[in-house]
Design a protein that fits this description.
It is a single chain. The protein is mostly helical. Among the domains are: 14-78, lambda repressor-like DNA-binding domains (434 Repressor (Amino-terminal Domain)); 104-252, P-loop containing nucleotide triphosphate hydrolases (Rossmann fold); 255-362, no CATH class; 364-445, Arc Repressor Mutant, subunit A (Orthogonal Bundle), CATH 1.10.10; 756-855. Helix content is 61%, strand content 4%. The strands form two sheets. The chain has a six-stranded parallel beta sheet, sandwiched between helices. Strands 7-8 form a two-stranded antiparallel ribbon. The chain is globular. It starts with a helix and ends with a helix. 50% of the residues are buried. One of its GO terms (molecular function) is DNA binding. This is ATPase. Residues 18-74 form the HTH cro/C1-type domain.
């Protein structure tokens, strides 16, 4: 048998095995795909024998979905040899039961959510294969989202990543890039998309940007950049308006087909609108079936709803308590009642408004008023915010939870399950329902003004309650609870700005400052409000405190230069000995150390002295830890350890709590000093002090991996880096470059030169993008080693000569671990001429750009 025949036989063998196991498990291809987190198309391709060697990760997912206790033979049949026993997945709640395979991020298509769209789905799949940017256009409720999700699922293979970006809560065009990064699962760490989009092969990544119409300019700008700069990325947009880009292919999503008459039962049953309505009714009335007796009524109802999917959903939800005849009659009444105000809209928009109005009219007076009032809260919002802003006749505060449950049950309010573990229960209104509710509130005299003003008052009171939270043992819980209402704080700030109440706005910003740090797109909103309020308030010290907040948030979003600029101005406006003055000075020192500014280093002694005199032990400890980190970056290891140990000694005081970043800094200092056992001790403390639900697990896993690497425990280091890699894909943080650096060192030691090249290139890219120049001095020596391993000795020696000149004449020096790597790689290099350089940061960035060119 030839090799080709052997491969074909192997494909067929695994295909038959998979088919047998699936049938034995009683699963359809769709059900198995749903359990495994793969596309139905992938299952079909494998069972048809058209996949020569399925990916190992895909085979493992299939084995887990099939419930195989020992998947080794299954893996071997797929061509992956012997495998270890799979760890059984944890038990999850019903709410979390949807598959969450790494290839799909965000909302997944509902298994039976698409009805009567097969032709459109086929066309859209073809368009996605032929075009880079496709926009689905249509009115709200027409089903654009489900069609887009189904098309992305149909298009994608086992190796395709689908990222779904829900733009509903994005309120500014400038926040669209951060919203996309958040959909990838990121935390504050960068403000650019290059590092998640570059290096993709065609078909590797599909980004679905959903509900784009209210941030059209922002979506168009980003989509145009993706299409023009990243050939491996496909973009699918849903919007009520086309983007207007030259590369855009626009397809209008039509309503579902409705029966042409009431007499022909077969024609009625074949109608997509009737099929969808009947499926949804069966969810609330399992005994419901379409019969010749009720078919004419169903047909008339579907026609009256124009075949609009959202309208069908809302009507069907009522079938649990009302007959189809009653629903149709009620809709007829509401059509006549509301046809005037909506006469200017398209028919399907009038019908959608009628459907929403009918649902709202059926509520109790208290539930309806709560729905109206929730429309001013932004989205998402929490029960606490509803109780704080929306109560008052006829809504009793004790009834709020029950009324919210009623609105959820009647499909007028949606629970937000994403990040529920971190931020608790949240709710959101669909935009079409929110618009209707907002109009209802506006029609009630001065209610709209009253509840917008209440939002300002509630947020002002709320932030006053956050005073002292930083020193509280449950500070993360308090700040995350505040962050869960970030949309409401945006509403309050907009209202305060509209009224010119800038002092009130400033108080809200100052009180909310920490809560803005939990999500990149929200942090950008904080920067905007902090700088805007700083420019409007008359009190210079308040302005300086606001700019200090802008500096902190800029640093978190990866804009080190912006952080430096804000801190620079803040420290000129705030007395340096006050708490916020110390914050501004500490931020200025920290951002300056990233940018190789020697003035920052000179500020440290005076800053530490003032912090110790301040009297607040917690603030003094924080400043010393901040300065210790800056000194570590500058290679002043003994001085850095002294300040970090002072922070550690302060933990005995009330209000001072363990912080994993400071522990990690101590671990790094001892690692560089050669104290391996102490480095391990601090790394373990960092792990133990990190919150169990902290999304930025990367940093601690990377810290532990470094210790294991230098202890010669490469397998353990690799396992930790694998864990950190998974977290990088989810939530980015300060220290991800170290994960990439040590991934390169491990790969190079194992002879995996291509992996080393990719890892070190990504690390250099990341640091250049964020402006963290000082860390490039740790990464560039590894780049020299990688260039030599790749056989590019001339480029390696040239870079090595430049770094040798840096070490001889510039400050800060390379850290010992980086210097050791450089010395191993520089046997044939000579020190470069032209040093010292007048601009250290520019010199390092020039070397980094040369490295990127050499590694490309």
């Amino acid at each position: 048998m030839s090799d080709t025949d052997g491969r074909a036989d192997g494909r067929r063998g695994f295909a038959d095995l998979l088919l047998d196991l699936r049938v034995q498990a009683g699963l359809s291809q769709e059900e198995l795909a749903d359990r495994a987190g793969l596309s139905v198309r992938s299952i079909r391709e494998i069972e048809a024998g058209r996949v020569a060697r399925p990916r190992k990760d895909s085979v493992r997912l299939l084995a887990s979905a099939l419930g195989l206790q020992d998947p080794s033979q299954f893996l071997a049949a797929a061509g992956h040899g012997t495998a270890r026993r799979l760890v059984q997945p944890p038990v999850v709640s019903v709410a979390d039961a949807a598959p969450t395979g790494l290839r799909w991020r965000g909302t997944r298509p509902i298994p039976d959510g698409l009805v009567g769209r097969e032709q459109e789905l086929f066309e859209l799949e073809t368009l996605l294969r032929q075009n880079r940017l496709v926009t689905l256009v249509g009115p709200g409720g027409v089903g654009k989202t489900e069609l887009a999700l189904a098309a992305a699922d149909r298009f994608s293979g086992a190796d395709t990543t689908v990222v779904v970006v829900d733009l509903t809560t994005v309120q500014r065009d400038a926040a669209v890039p951060s919203a996309i990064l958040d959909a990838f699962g990121t935390a504050p760490g960068t403000s650019d998309l290059d590092d998640v989009l570059s290096g993709r092969q065609p078909g590797d990544l599909v980004i679905v940007e959903d509900n784009a119409e209210h941030v059209l300019d922002g979506v168009a700008t980003v989509a145009n950049r993706m299409v023009r700069s990243f050939p491996g990325v496909g973009v699918l947009v849903t919007s009520r308006i086309p983007l207007g880009l030259p590369d855009e292919v626009v397809r209008r999503v039509q309503v579902l087909g409705v029966p042409a008459n009431d007499e022909n039962f077969e024609e009625i049953a074949a109608s997509p609108a009737v099929e969808m309505f009947c499926r949804r009714v069966a969810r609330v009335r399992p005994d419901f079936v379409l019969t010749p007796a009720n078919a004419p009524t169903v047909a008339r109802l579907c026609r009256r709803l124009d075949g609009l999917p959202l309208a069908l959903e809302l009507a069907a939800a009522r079938a649990g308590s009302l007959s189809v005849e009653t629903i149709l009659a009620a809709l007829d009444d509401r059509f006549r009642l509301l046809s005037g105000p909506r006469r200017f809209g398209a028919p399907h928009q009038r019908t959608l408004a009628d459907t929403i109005a009918w649902s709202v009219d059926a509520l109790s007076d208290a539930a309806r008023q709560l729905l109206y009032r929730c429309s001013v809260l932004g989205s998402p919002f929490t029960l606490e915010a509803v109780a704080g802003v929306c109560t008052g006749d006829p809504i009793d505060g004790l009834d709020v939870a029950m009324l919210l449950a009623e609105l959820v049950d009647k499909s007028l309010l949606q629970p937000v399950l994403e990040f529920e573990q971190l931020y608790g229960a949240r709710y959101k209104l669909l935009e079409t329902i929110r618009e209707h509710a907002y109009a209802g509130l506006s029609s009630q005299g001065g209610d709209l003004v009253e509840f917008r003003d209440r939002a300002v008052a509630w947020c002002s009171t709320y932030v006053a309650g956050l005073e002292g939270a930083w020193s509280s043992p449950d500070r993360d819980r308090q700040y995350r609870a505040a962050h869960a209402n970030s949309a409401l704080f945006e509403v309050a700030l907009e209202r305060a700005a509209e009224l010119g109440e800038w002092d009130a706005a400033a108080r809200i910003v100052l009180g909310f400052r920490i809560a803005w740090q939990y999500q990149a797109s929200v942090a950008e909103s904080g920067i905007r409000w902090a700088t805007l309020c700083a420019s409007q308030v008359s009190d210079k010290e308040v302005s300086g405190r606001l700019l200090a907040i802008a500096g902190r948030l800029s640093s978190l979003t990866g804009d080190i230069r912006g952080a430096r600029r804000h801190y620079e101005e803040a420290r000129t406006l705030i007395p340096g000995e006050t708490e916020m003055g110390l914050v501004a000075r500490g931020g200025w020192v920290s951002s300056g150390s990233h940018l190789l500014d020697t003035q920052s280093l000179a500020e440290i002694p005076a800053l530490v002295d003032d912090a110790r005199k301040h009297g607040d032990v917690q603030r003094s400890a924080t400043v010393q830890a901040t300065c210790g980190l800056a000194l570590l970056r500058w290679g002043r290891l003994v001085e850095a350890k002294e300040l970090l140990l002072a922070w550690e000694a302060a933990l005995v005081n009330p209000g001072v709590y363990p912080d994993e970043i400071a522990y990690m800094a101590l671990s790094r200092v001892d690692l560089e000093l050669g104290n391996l056992s102490e480095a391990r001790h601090w790394a373990v403390l960092a792990r133990d002090s990190q919150a169990s639900d902290d999304p930025e697990r990367t940093k601690v896993a990377g810290c532990l991996a470094m210790v294991e690497f230098h202890d010669g425990r490469y397998d353990e280091a690799r396992a930790l880096l694998d864990q950190a890699d998974a977290d990088i894909r989810g939530h980015r943080g300060y220290f991800d470059y170290l994960v990439m650096l040590y991934r390169s060192r491990l790969a190079r030691a194992a002879g995996e030169v291509e992996q080393a090249r990719v890892s070190i290139r990504d690390a250099v890219n990341r640091l250049l993008l964020e402006g963290r120049v000082v860390y490039l001095l740790e990464v560039l020596p590894e780049a020299v080693a990688v260039l030599h391993a790749l056989g590019r000795s001339d480029a390696g020696d040239a870079l090595c000569g430049q770094l040798l000149a840096w070490q001889r004449s510039m400050d800060p020096p390379m850290l010992p671990t980086a210097w050791a790597i450089l010395q191993e790689s520089c046997e044939s290099a000579s020190v470069a001429d032209g040093w010292p350089e007048p601009d250290p940061a520019a010199a390092v960035q020039r070397l980094a750009n040369d490295v990127l060119a050499a590694l490309s």
